[in-house]
Amino acid sequence: SITSTLTTLLCLSAPGGVSLVIPQSNINATVAQNILLSVEYSCRGVATIEWKHVSSWGTTKIVEWKSGNYVNISTVYKDRVTTFENGSIQLLNVGMRDAGYYFITVTEEYGTNTYGTIIVNVYEVIYEDLHFVAVLFAFLAAVSAILICFMWLCNKSLHLFQKKTTHKLTASTTEEIELETIEC
């Protein structure tokens, strides 16, 4: 392809072995995000690029490829890694286990090599977004409003009940007084 031919031409024209540039050596990401481990290399011959991941869970070889020839992706990363001719890789849908150190080794066909490291920090999102908090707040406000209305209705009913009971008592007391006066 044209890109592999251009890469090979760049490697042939680069003086003095292998050079590697890492524009961002520390990457912060959240769970389920896609991240780009960006690098740019140049060399005299055809380069072999290898990426490894090192974390508290161990060391895993992610991918190895020779510019313009083959790509060998680890089965663990098969559906999650995209490679680029400049040596960069993209990790899809990162998780907490993806945090750690990513080591790149670029080796040119004459044996010269260079190394680089990118540190990836992955953070878990406690709340997906403010939408969750807003819905929860609205739900609690609605429940509170319903309870307040229920308490108001209960209070009114109790007040009416007490008023009727008091009225009946005064009426029966008046009848007793009238009855007593007639008997005398």
Structure description:
With 184 residues, the chain is an alpha+beta fold. The chain has two helices and eleven strands; from the N terminus they run αβββββββββββα. The protein has two domains: 19-125, Immunoglobulins (Immunoglobulin-like); 127-183. The strands form three sheets. A six-stranded mixed beta sheet has the order 2-11-10-5-6-7, with no helix packed on it. A hairpin with a 2-residue loop joins β5 (47-55) and β6 (58-66). The chain is rod-shaped and about 130 Å long. It starts with a helix and ends with a helix.
> Would you tell me the overall average pLDDT?
84
H-E order: HEEEEEEEEEEEH
Give the % helix. 25-40%
Overall geometric form = rod-shaped
The helix tally amounts to 2
Quaternary state reads single chain
CATH architecture of the largest domain: Sandwich
By helix and strand content, what is the structural category? Answer: alpha+beta
Record the strand order, biggest sheet.
2-11-10-5-6-7
Keywords: Glycoprotein, Membrane, Signal, Transmembrane, Transmembrane helix
Protein name: VSTM5 protein
GO cellular component, one term: plasma membrane
Main location: membrane
